[in-house]
Design a protein that fits this description.
- The complex is a heterodimer of chains A (275) and B (115).
- Chain A is α+β, with helices and mostly antiparallel strands.
- In chain A, 52% of the residues lie in helices and 12% in strands.
- Chain A contains 10 helices and 5 strands.
- A 5-stranded antiparallel beta sheet of chain A has the order 2-1-5-4-3, sandwiched between helices.
- In chain A, helix 3 (34-47) packs antiparallel against helix 4 (52-64) and helix 3 crosses helix 10.
- Chain B is built from 3 helices and 5 strands; from the N terminus they run H-E-E-H-E-E-E-H.
- Chain B has helices at residues 2-12, 41-62, 100-114, and strands spanning 17-24, 30-35, 67-74, 77-83, 88-94.
- Chain B has a 5-stranded antiparallel beta sheet, sandwiched between helices.
- In chain B, a hairpin with a 2-residue loop joins strand 3 (67-74) and strand 4 (77-83).
- Classes of the chains: A alpha+beta (275), B alpha+beta (115).
- Chains A and B meet through helix 9, strand 3 and strand 4 of A and helix 2, strand 3 and strand 4 of B.
Chain lengths: 275, 115
């Protein structure tokens, strides 16, 4: 049963730093309001980036939105934080099953079923994937050795940010020479400035890294530029690429950094695939 | 100059701040500084001004509008820059575990006072 969204929204508005965002985003998701749920989950994750249940919730929202590659990454993050997280094993098992990889699907679904023996639906799912109830007589196998991420289907595209919000107008990826590799940047008035921005993006990232090194600030992670129209986060997904992620100027800096990190992760995966 | 000195002293009293400067954006020369030992003012000024200039250009080309605040985050600290209307930038260098939100607000307030 979904909770009262109006009441949860009021509680969230009164205390945006509370964990109420989990219940609100889940309620929105269950009502089919995936975009609103997505927004609330990202706001929550920007405040609680190490909260496993927030990543689990976000992964389910992404799955609803058919963004399976990023959903997988979110559940993978959960399992790094909590290796026995039932929801993450169920989710990853579902994604493997959907991709036709029954070996990995069975491993994760069965592990989830053993962690929660009361979930009869999950037991049925395991038996369906295994082809019968005899599966329970066999010992739980070792985790399949192949790196999981390679086997999950992603959106086949030339766009490094496919599936992400703002892929065409708020995210820009360039190489070391300033050549645009993907994404785009559009001003608040609708003008496409992708190539203009690309021409100076790599140089800005270079200066940021140089300043951090010369000032002995350690390894540079990102540069945030708060503008009057948009705010942007500049970072380097790989040593030879630079990325700019932009958001409306009135959104919190933490949300921008989270958005940029996600985009960088997606861009890295894309670069690995295309190179 | 006295005004700048008082502003910088107010900034460097905040926890974790290793130094603060007022720098000319166009030539990267220090106008005023309050730095802890070990920090070289001329180097900090030049690097901050170069980074600010690059960021101003990126903001202009990318339709971000006028830059109000820059935050370079690294593993061991941060470089923070607040441009002012007078072709000056207010610069602060901070270690880890610094209340960045408070520092940002204070720098924006001082940058506005600087014109």
């Amino acid at each position: 049963m979904t909770e009262d969204i109006r009441a949860l929204s009021a509680q969230y508005a009164a205390d945006p730093s509370s964990l109420i965002f989990l219940r609100l985003a889940e309620a929105l998701r269950q009502r089919g309001q995936a975009d609103a749920a997505h927004k609330v989950a990202i706001q929550g994750l920007s405040r609680y980036p190490h909260l496993p249940d927030a990543h689990d919730l976000f992964a389910r929202i992404l799955t609803d939105q058919q963004d399976y590659a990023n959903a997988f990454d979110e559940w993978d993050t959960v399992l790094r934080l909590v290796p026995q997280h039932i929801g993450a094993h169920k989710g990853i098992g579902f994604l493997y099953y959907r991709a036709g990889d029954h070996e990995h699907a069975l491993y994760h679904l069965r592990l989830a079923a053993e962690l929660d023996p009361t979930d009869s639906g999950l037991r049925l799912a395991v038996e369906r994937v295994a082809g019968g109830g005899e599966i329970w007589d066999a010992p739980l196998p070792q985790a399949p050795s192949e790196p999981a991420t390679r086997r999950v289907p992603t959106t086949e595209s030339n766009d490094p940010f496919a599936g992400l919000d703002g892929a065409r107008h708020r995210l820009l990826l360039v190489d070391v020479d300033g050549l645009r590799l993907g994404g785009g940047l559009v001003t608040t008035s609708g003008r496409d400035v992708s190539d203009d921005a690309a021409a100076v993006l790599a140089g800005t990232a270079f200066e940021a890294a140089r300043a951090a090194r010369m000032l002995e600030l350690g390894e540079w992670t990102h540069l945030t530029i708060e503008g009057t129209e948009l705010s942007a986060c500049v970072l380097k997904p790989t040593p030879d690429t630079s990325l700019l992620a932009a958001m409306d100027a009135d959104l919190p800096a933490g949300q921008l950094a989270f958005f940029a990190e996600r985009a960088a992760k997606t861009a890295r995966a894309w670069l690995e695939r295309v190179r | 100059m006295t005004d700048y000195a008082a502003m910088l002293d107010a900034l460097t009293r905040l926890r974790g701040i290793r130094g603060a400067m007022v720098v000319a954006l166009n030539d990267g020369l220090p106008v005023a500084e309050s730095l802890m030992g070990g920090l070289k003012g001329t180097a900090l000024a030049a690097l901050a001004a170069t980074l600010a200039s690059r960021s101003v250009e990126l903001a202009a080309r990318g339709g971000l509008g006028a830059p109000r605040f820059l935050h370079l985050q690294s593993s061991d600290g941060s470089l923070l820059v607040a441009p002012t209307a007078a072709d000056l930038v207010l610069v602060a260098i901070a270690g880890r575990d610094v209340p960045l939100g408070l520092l940002r607000l204070e720098m924006l307030r001082l940058a506005e006072r600087m014109g």
